[in-house]
Amino acid sequence: MNNSVSLKGTKEGYQLIIQSSASFESILEELKELTMQLKKDSAAGHEITFFVKTGKRELTNEEKAQLTEIIEDDHFKVHSFEAEVISVEKALKWHIESAPTLEAKTVRSGQIVEAEGDLLLIGGVHPGGTVRATGSIFIIGELRGIAHAGYGGKESAIVVGNFRYNAQVRIGDNVHVIEQDEDSEELKNDVEFVYVNDLHIIEVSPLQKLKTVRPEIGKYAGGLM
């Protein structure tokens, strides 16, 4: 055995440690021998869980499938694959999602502004205009059109803005229509946020409650660390 794979017992099951520098062929060969021996020694009917750790090696989906096929049977199950690195594709996706898109413009009727991840809009949204993002939307300006956060189904997204005008806010598949009497002298100037509560209903709350409702907001600075 060249120690391309090794086992470490835990309370939850086994850590299956893959040497990142080993060839995949040697990993498959040693894994077959190791699992055959384990299956001989294990108690019948007792399920064993494996946590596969690959260190500084990111396995492809095909490689994961090959390892899973060798390990799993009626009693051996793969719980997860964990690597200390991520692919460039995943890193770029995470970067896009964690770094807000900044737009400084007025969104006029018929125009649509879209963003992957969060969107910070410095400018107004006219009636008939739409801003939408897969993440949250932060508006510094007048919202008179449509703001669609969580576009694609992310219900944890929020919309932050001054909701003093007639407008429409969407989060995921949820819709909230803001109706204001714009001739009223009591139009509010407070910044608020809109979110989907635990009952899957859109709710408008003062900005002061944001950290209580969505404590994860603001815990990242964006960029690749």
What would you say the CATH architecture of the largest domain is?
Answer: 3 Solenoid
Looking at CATH, which topology of the largest domain would you report? Pectate Lyase C-like
Structural class: alpha/beta
- Separate helix tally: 4
Helix content: 10-25%
Strand order of the largest sheet: 5-7-9-11-14-15
CATH class of the largest domain: Mainly Beta
Report how far the terminal alpha carbons are from each other: 38 Å
Low-confidence spans: pLDDT under 50, at least 5 residues? Answer: 221-225
Function: Cell division inhibitor that blocks the formation of polar Z ring septums. Rapidly oscillates between the poles of the cell to destabilize FtsZ filaments that have formed before they mature into polar Z rings. Prevents FtsZ polymerization.
Keywords: Cell cycle, Cell division, Septation
Protein name: Probable septum site-determining protein MinC
Pfam families: MinC_C, MinC_N_1
Question: Could you walk me through the main structural features you see in this protein, from its secondary elements to its overall organization?
Answer:
It comes from Alkalibacterium iburiense. Cell division inhibitor that blocks the formation of polar Z ring septums. Rapidly oscillates between the poles of the cell to destabilize FtsZ filaments that have formed before they mature into polar Z rings. Prevents FtsZ polymerization. InterPro entries: CAP/MinC_C, MinC, MinC_C_sf, MinC_N_1, Septum_form_inhib_MinC_C. This is Probable septum site-determining protein MinC. Keywords: Cell cycle, Cell division, Septation. The chain is α/β, with parallel strands linked by helices. It folds into 2 domains: 5-88, 2-Layer Sandwich (Transcription Regulator spoIIAA), CATH 3.30.750; 95-213, Pectate Lyase C-like (3 Solenoid), CATH 2.160.20. Helix content is 20%, strand content 34%. It has helices at residues 24-41, 61-71, 88-98, 210-213, and strands at 5-9, 14-18, 48-55, 76-83, 101-104, 112-115, 119-122, 130-133, 137-142, 146-149, 159-162, 167-171, 174-178, 192-196, 202-206. The strands form 3 sheets. The chain has a 6-stranded mixed sheet with strand order 5-7-9-11-14-15, with no helix packed on it. Strands 6-8-10-12-13 form a 5-stranded mixed sheet, with no helix packed on it. Strand 14 and strand 15 (202-206) form a beta hairpin. Helix 1 (24-41) runs parallel beside helix 2 (61-71).
